[in-house]
Automatic annotation (TrEMBL):
One Pfam family per UniProt: Polyketide_cyc2
Cleaved signal peptide residues: 1-22
Keyword entries, A-Z: Signal
Name this protein carries in UniProt: Uncharacterized protein YndB with AHSA1/START domain
Length: 179
């Protein structure tokens, strides 16, 4: 066996090991961040429960001033929908699919570009004894094989988590100014 053949065999074995490792990764992913806001839940609620208000602090909307967006369905609440198309943050839609007024909003998040993905997101509000509100932003969904393989090299929690942290800071500033 010459040196080139040995190198190719080693690369093939390494590739198989990488693919096998990726296959063992979890079938779902979850990203979650929290922030404590010095404002009552009644003041924070409208900023998470209505998509136009959400886009006042949405970190992805702020990444691209040329984003093309459209609202459809109900003006607020279940059935309210937001579609976007952007060179910076891709294309997709966000739709409110559930709501517990004053406490939580569940959303269906569908990405078209840069890759297709179908996830769920939620904003949950928890009043604290001192009159503040803890806000939790979560996103979860299936991890197909390509997602698992990418996850070997890219930490989804850190990548998306940074954006969630920035968004929650934007929300905090907006809600606390009103308080």
């Amino acid at each position: 066996m010459n040196n080139l053949s040995l190198v190719l065999v080693c690369l093939g074995v390494a590739l198989l090991m990488l693919l096998a490792y990726a296959a063992t990764r979890p079938d779902e992913f979850r990203v979650e961040r929290r922030v404590r806001i010095a404002a009552p839940a009644e003041q924070v609620w409208p900023l998470v429960a209505e998509l136009r208000a959400f886009n006042r602090w949405n970190p992805y909307e702020r990444k691209d001033p040329l984003i093309k967006s459209a609202y459809s369905g109900a003006a607020s609440g279940v059935g309210s929908r937001y579609d976007w198309d952007s060179r910076e943050v891709g294309s997709g839609s966000l739709e409110i699919v559930g709501q517990q007024p004053g406490r939580a909003v569940q959303l269906k998040l569908d990405f078209v570009k840069p890759f297709e993905a179908h996830n769920q997101a939620e904003f949950a509000l928890q009043p604290t004894p001192d009159g503040a509100t803890e806000v939790r932003w979560t996103m979860h969904g299936p991890a197909n094989f390509i997602g698992k393989l990418m996850g070997v090299f890219i930490n989804m929690d850190k990548m998306v988590g940074r954006d969630f942290e920035a968004g929650l800071q934007n929300l905090q500033q907006l809600a606390e100014v009103k308080a």
